[in-house]
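ZP: hey, is the fe (ii) ion complex queued? I don't see it on the tracker
AM: it wasn't, my bad. submitting now with these inputs:
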Amino acid sequence: MAAGRIIARMNPLERAEAAERAMMEELDRVVVKSVIYTSGERDPRQPLERPPDTGKRYMMGHDPRLPRMPAKPTVMDYFNLRFGPTQHLMQSARLAQKNGASEKIVLACLLHDIATTGFIRGDHGYWSAQLVEPYVDPEVSWAIRYHQALRFFPDESVGYSYPQSYIKLFGEDYVPEPYIQRDYQYARDHKWYMSSRLICVNDLYAFDQNVRVELEEFTDVIGRHFKQPEEGLGFDASPSAHMWRTMMWPTKYL
Ligand SMILES: [Fe+2]
Ligand SMILES: [Fe+2]
């Protein structure tokens, strides 16, 4: 009864934290969240509350609450075992295919939002590009990086208007930050501009709840255009391998 009354008095964040503490007590490892997971919900300057020291070790690898990754993961393993819903990505890629885009563009569409779906949302175009950069043609990662900026600016020559959904999401008066405007200006005059623009064109109409696309549809495109590292994605020595490892082991203490 008393515990029930305490829980009833808690605000949602406290309740979530209590549930999490209960779950951690069941885990045989202590999990400490990265600051960025909760920054904003809590003041990041405050020390993170630690569970009482019961002699447990800290999480230093696989988190048993997540499906285990194979020893040598591929990008498809991340799609299947670590990413959130990916229909948007696969629908975009299929639409690009239907519109006659090259395989490189199809791959760019398939990967364009992987940061949103598996890593970090804010500035997702930059994060997504950085994740895939060592493994794809430079034009593919370039296109992914700049779709971040281009999506805020119309290009009527290819039938791309400012998305209606952004007015709803961000308000009529939303103005992209100066760094987005700068990157838009830069991208507009670049030889790969249209590759990036094609991501936006195929992105916009890719939210159909009734269409179900399977990742296997893109096995060949991935096989031909994504250089799978021999050691497994995350265990190679590329400049973004650690980012893939973080998705594999998101609760690793150090
Ligand atoms: Fe995006
Ligand atoms: Fe998208």
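AM: back. Residues 12-26 form the longest helix (15 residues).
ZP: great, adding it to the tracker
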